[in-house]
Amino acid sequence: MSGWSALRAYAALPATTGPWYLVITLLGRIPASMGQLGSLLLVSGATGSLALGGATAAAFAVGQATGGPIIGKSADRYGHRPTGLVAALLHALALVLLVVCVEQDAPTWAALASSVVAGASVPQVGPLSRARWTALAHHGRLPANRFPTAMSFEGTSDEFAFVLGPALVGIIATATSPRTAVLMAAALTATACVSFALHPTATLVTRHGEKDGAATAPVLRVPVFLLAAGLAGLGCYFGSVQAGVTWRAVDAGSEGAAGLIYAILGLSSALAGVFVPMLPASFPLARRLQAGFALLAVLSLPLAIVGGLSIGGLWPLGLLIVLPGITIAPILVTAYTQAEMTVPVQRISWVMTLLTSSVVIGYAIGALLSGTLADRYGPLAAFLVALGAACVGVTASGLGRRRLAALRPG
Predict the structure, then answer these.
(1) pTM of the predicted model, to two decimals?
(2) What is the pLDDT of residue 135?
(3) Which one-letter DSSP state was computed for residue 123?
(4) What DSSP designation does 309 have?
(5) Is residue 267 a contact partner of residue 163, using CB atoms and an 8 Å limit?
(6) Which of 186, 212, 343, 409 has its CA 20 to 30 A from that of 257?
(7) In this predicted structure, what is the pLDDT of residue 56?
(8) How far is CA 358 from CA 226, 355, 366, in A?
């Protein structure tokens, strides 16, 4: 697909979903990316304990990783609209409750419980939006040749939300307070996420109860496990690189620069995601996924050398982190496109949330492992874990290349 054809394909997406859908899905993702950092700043600022703030953020991540597939399964069984409304309202209330617990100096367990509930009830706008595009394709309302464009839009939106969410938390917390930032996330959830749940596209994903044979058919086939393993490796890569960059920034006395450098990773990924539809159809998805992970490992080598050995100041990190960033959105787009080909449409919401949760779990593992090793051995350890995580993706995609290549839309 040429550049102009790709741009025309993006411009045609609103005609399929309605003019506001793309805006709603982008805004609806932002609260999820605000929650972890917001809870960390809120609790650590109020208590003076970074450890307690980190524990609260970790509780949010654990809840998000475990709650995502539950929300996806509920969306398949009961429909996107009721599931989305319940999740959005519960998430907003849990964020408000977290603020109340901190403001009223409630017991530690109350703040941790609120954070777990907030994470578990993240409305999962990104995965469910991908499921809706799949439903549109199966209903014939989205031409097959535009489905990769829709997945590219989803990947780009994820990356922009990934950058915008923490940036908003930092700006609001600095200008007012962390409390206001968390409440803003709650307000955005109650508006954008509720709008997403009520959007007419929600009715396209048909409900399937327990007695529905297609709904109860086993879907955890080998390709799904391999995709989940690869994306868990990608999440581990995120957490490890963030730990390494943060170590370098703190060591240089510029803690705030860590967020800016890491945001460059998301921006370069988002821009690369726009051009994914231009990849030739002769480049099969299974081969593309393996090549993406291999390129991620190769392009991370300069970052690992410069960052791990503390060569130069912080600006080389900001330049070199662009390189691996250009592979991330293509990997995500390819993996989610393959997921659409792996399972019945009746279970697509659950599988999409399962893959997203794999990224979250991998991120938590990478952040914890790399942070611990970096504290003991320096930043090189964190960047080496990142390289290892990229190799996990290469291995998973390589093991499943033949199986994944045999998949066809169904």
Answers:
(1) 0.81
(2) 85
(3) -
(4) T
(5) yes
(6) 186
(7) 86
(8) 11, 5, 12
